[in-house]
Each structure stands twice: as C-alpha cells, then as structure tokens.
Amino acid sequence: MRYDAEGVMRYPDHDERADESVLSAYLHQARALIAAYADAPDNADVPLHTVSASFEALRWFELPDACLR
C-alpha cells in the first residue's frame, strides 16, 4: 500500500483465482477434513489450556472451551 503524489491511496490489485480444475481436489480435501473431525474422539475429558493474563486482559470476545483443548 502506498499514497501517490496527490495523496490517493494505491494498492496492488490481487484477482488471482484457482482454476476450475482444482475444485475436485478441494472437495476431496474438505471431505477428508470433515471425516477426520467426525471420527475424532470426544475431548470433553481433556483439561483446558489456559491463556496468559496479558491475553485475558485484552480479550473482548467469547472464547469457547473447544478453542482451549
């Protein structure tokens, strides 16, 4: 990002997109991720990790228990 001589912000235009030929591979990867998640053991008995006091002081958002396992 930069500003030109007139003070207008300029930034590179990134319109790169994957070709349609990769869709099949993306779908295969998504199915594998979903299957791995579905087959994962229930982590309810795994103790929660803690976050640092400085992190907690700055946190303004809800932090689900699943994020701390």
Give an overview of the whole structure.
A hairpin with a 5-residue loop joins strand 1 and strand 2 (9-10). This protein has a two-stranded antiparallel ribbon with strand order 1-2. It is built from 2 helices and 2 strands. Helices cover 33% and strands 6% of the residues. It has helices at 23-39, 53-58; strands at residues 2-3, 9-10. With 69 residues, the protein is mostly helical.
The largest sheet, given as strand count, sense and whether it forms a barrel, is: 2 strands, antiparallel
Strand arrangement within the widest β-sheet reads 1-2
- How much of the sequence is in beta strands? 5-15%
Large-scale geometry: flat
Structural class: mainly alpha
End-to-end Cα distance, whole Å, is: 38 Å
Question: What is the CA-based Rg, rounded?
Answer: 22 Å
Number of helices, where a helix is a run of at least 4 consecutive DSSP H or I residues: 2
Helix content percent band: 25-40%
Strands, count:
2
Short description:
This protein has 69 residues and is mainly α.
Write the layout of secondary structure elements.
Elements: E1 2-3, E2 9-10, H1 23-39, H2 53-58
Antiparallel strand pairs: 1-2
List the keywords.
69 residues; mainly alpha; two-stranded antiparallel sheet; 2 helices
